[in-house]
Amino acid sequence: MVNAIAHATGKEKEKVAVYLRKAKSTGTKCWTFLNDPDDRRRVLVQYEALKEEYKKMVKELFGNPYDHMAKEPILKMVQPDQKAEAFFLSYVYSDNRFLPTEHVTKYVKAASWLNMLNEINRNKKAIKKQLNLNLDQFWCHVCDIIKSEGIDLPASYQRLRNKMTEYQEKGYACLIDWRFGNSLARKIDDDVLKKLLEHPNQYDDVMVCYLYNNWANQNNREVIGARIVSLRRKEWEHEIIAGREGWNAFNEKYVRQVKGLPARTMHPLALVECDDYNFNYYFTDPDLPGSGKDLQRYVGYIVADSSIGLVLGASYRHAKAPVFDMVRIAWLDAMYYIRSLTGSDQWYLPFEVKADHWNQKNAFPFFERIARFVKPAVGNKHRGYIEQLFGSDHAKRAEKLAAHNELNYNGNNLTARHAGVNREVLKANAKRRPLIGDHASEQIDKFLYYMRNIPAITKNDLEAPGREVQWKQRWNELCDDQKRSITDLQFLHLFGFSHTPQGRSVTITNRGIEPVIYGTKYSYDLPDYVTMQHLIGSKVTVIYDPYDMSRVLITDHDKIRFIAREASLQPRALVYQYDGSRKALDMILNEKKAQVQKVAALSAARTHEIDSKALLLAGLAPKELLADAEQAYNEEQNSQSKTTEEEPTGFDVYKNIFNR
User: 347 forms bridges with which residues in the sheet?
Assistant: First the structure.
């Protein structure tokens, strides 16, 4: 019995298949058909029942069917080697080049055959038991199959045995073709060629080829062509790009990027980032001579919540570069905006801060005081989300809307493929651009408002609310553990500005604290003069909030630290009194009296009793205390005169003089 079309090819196979189908359907007596137990679609014919002429035809077309029946079990003994496939798929040669898939398949098949042959060689009895063949017949069939199947192994017995021995000693690697080694590289001095390719002057391939061939001629080495140089430049790019184009280029293309979770998975204030930003608007400075007066720009510093891409705070100035005070102002602005969003009197801090290396001497300590701050890697442009925010469609929409009438939006940078704006119209409207100062501030504030409030629409969601609304919704869903609240004292300590006039401190007097900040005199009272009068004369630093000057932080950075509030000024004439002014004055007078009483109590504690005579004779006490002492003395004398009469003493004489 033989499969009549198993090994036919091309037109012969097609003709045989058609003929057999017709013969089976008509039920011809010349053929004895059988069902294949493995695949009923196959047409099987009993070979022994064929006429001699048909047997001859089968042999001519397909070979001896008995040989085929002997080879079929041998083919079934070969099992795919998955380990070999893993080895060849991961095999690397010539600086990170991999084997073609076609060759991987070929080598895996060869390894699978060698595994079977070595196993049979160790257990020769299996040939007789499983195949009913002797050794000579087995090896003949194996060589025939290797030749007919196109297996990448020697088809002669002796060479095949040698390959089996080599495979046992060297493993999978011995099957790899010589073309996939470093034979080509041996003709080229890699070190010399790499030095030329990685030169910072970035020589083109033809020039590198010329320089290399000059070296090769002097050192009896083989010359190369520009095509080889081009191939090697691309092949070694990961090694030479740092020297050729710089570390930034290497970082951008080859350094592994840490893939972060989507920003939307974070809760508000989980991560806040800050960075400088050049606003894409042109303004006019009429006082500036020359053609550049209509090309003035503002630089800003932006603080943004990365969880939703919401701009929390900003500061800006008419300049080419920011200054550190802009960082502090931007964060101060962010803190006030956060408090307005939460609807609370409390201040809230982020859990983590990210920024670049700009002005790290001042900036890094400032950020470390606010929250957890990890210093970014040098040249890292993918440290977080704020760069994506600046380049997002949302930011571009806000910038363009803020310049809808002004037409001073200058689009993307000059090297960008798409400018994002009609530059002809931009140039034609140069004389209508807003002026620096109030007009520029108004437009930039409008841009920041749009960043926060225009709908955060996408292609799939045209009904999306603004980012400010989204932030509020997510904030209200947080628990207390997901919020970092601080006191007003902490707020001033972190974000306040120190007032040190010409490097000097401010002195506390009985008028309180009266600093002069940028030409304006402010007056602040001590919170409690009774308990804090000992601080009068102390040298302190005033830390103020430029957004709210009604209170300041007073500290000497050692033992003194309190918040002083703006002084309550009292009318001097009755006609200027107002509702509540009398009550406020009484509170101040009572506090003054309490101060005197405290001093008297402290004095009594030190002397164990008040000697009214000595106090009057001294004449150095405050007049309120002297009046109390005199009254006490008079009462004492009156009580004594009722019981006994005594001669006048020296003190009585002095008292009369004092009264006069």
Answer: 486
Q: Is the four-CA dihedral 535, 536, 542, 546 of positive or negative sign? A: positive
275 strand-pairing partners:
302
Residue 487's pLDDT is: 94
Strand partners, 276: 301
Residue 507's Cβ-side half-sphere holds a number of Cα atoms within 13 Å equal to 4
User: What digits encode the pLDDT tens for the residues 549-586?
Assistant: 999 999 999 999 999 999 876 555 555 555 655 565 55
CB 568 within 8 A of CB 523: no
Burial class (CB in 10 A: 0-12, 13-18, 19+), 556: middle
Pair 331, 370: CB distance under 8 Å: yes
Contact 352/273 with Cβ under 8 angstroms? no
The identity of residue 227, as a single letter, is: R
Structural tokens at position 483: 């919020």
Which pLDDT score is estimated for 593?
Answer: 66
Q: Spell out the residues 6+ positions from residue 5 whose beta carbon is closer than 8 angstroms to its own.
A: 13, 16, 17, 20, 42, 43
Query: Using 50, 70 and 90 to split pLDDT, how confident is the model at 493?
Result: very high
Helix, strand or coil, per DSSP, at residue 598:
helix
Residue from 218, 367, 365, 252 nearest 301 by CA? 367
Residue ranges with strand state E in 401-445: none
Helix (H, G, I), strand (E, B) or coil at 353: strand
Say how many residues make up the chain: 660
Determine the Cα–Cα distance for residues 314 and 274; give it in Å rounded to an integer. Answer: 9
- Cα distance between the two ends of the chain: 153
Alpha-carbon distance 453 to 467, whole Å?
6
Structure tokens at 297: 């720009």
Contact 503, 548 (CB under 8 A): no
Please list the alpha-helical segments (H only) found in 179-323.
Answer: 190-197, 205-218, 226-235, 237-245, 247-253
Distance CA 138, CA 146 (A): 12
Tokens of 643: 């019981």
Tokens for 650, please give them.
Answer: 């020296």
Angle value at C-alpha 207, between 205 and 209, nearest 5 degrees: 70
**Is the Cβ–Cβ distance between 488 and 329 less than 8 Å?**
no
In this structure, the strands spanning 516-517 and 97-98 are: unpaired
Contact assessment for residue 587 and residue 595, using Cβ atoms and an 8 Å cutoff: no
Query: What is residue 65's three-state secondary structure?
Result: helix
CA dist 79 and 212 (Å) reads: 50
Cα gap 387→140, rounded to integer Å: 70
- Output the CA–CA distances (angstroms, integers) from residue 213 to 197, 202, 237, in the order listed: 14, 18, 21
- pLDDT value of position 478: 94
| Token reading at 56 | 């001859």
Report the DSSP pairing between strands 524-525 and 561-566. Answer: antiparallel
Find how far residue 60's CA is from the centre of its chain: 72
Q: Is the pLDDT of residue 218 over 80?
A: yes
Residue type (1 letter), 237: E
Question: Residue 510: how many CB atoms within 10 A of its CB?
Answer: 11
Nearest to 444 by CA among 278, 273, 276, 275: 278
